[in-house]
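Hi P.,

Sorry for the delay on this. The queue was packed all week, but I finally got your sequence through. Input first:
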Amino acid sequence: MDPQGLWAGIDDAIFTIGGAVIGVVGQDLSDLFSGKLSGWEDYVGSALGGAAFGETLLYTGPIAAGAVGSAVANGTKQVLKNITGKQCGYDITSFGVDTILGAATGLIPGMKIQVITAWKLTII
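Then the structure:
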């Protein structure tokens, strides 16, 4: 809580940067489990999608954040792959499915970690 607004922008930076890092780590894990290395377009898309997820989560809830993050990630990947010639056209089905699945993952209840979920920042 920051009733005087003294920390404006810091929370946005934390959620955006944290989301981007988590997006890249998620792409790394996906590559590890699939056994193939994705292109830089996938990593940029994952970072931007993660950043969009983090920023949206700060102001809405997990369902909207999941939808926005997945939409940004998929859209960015497709645009970059079209620019680099690795893809021809846009796959609207892939975009829609990813967006819906992203929103659906927001329905999954999160883990409660006593120290983290109970911690609140109060600036007096």
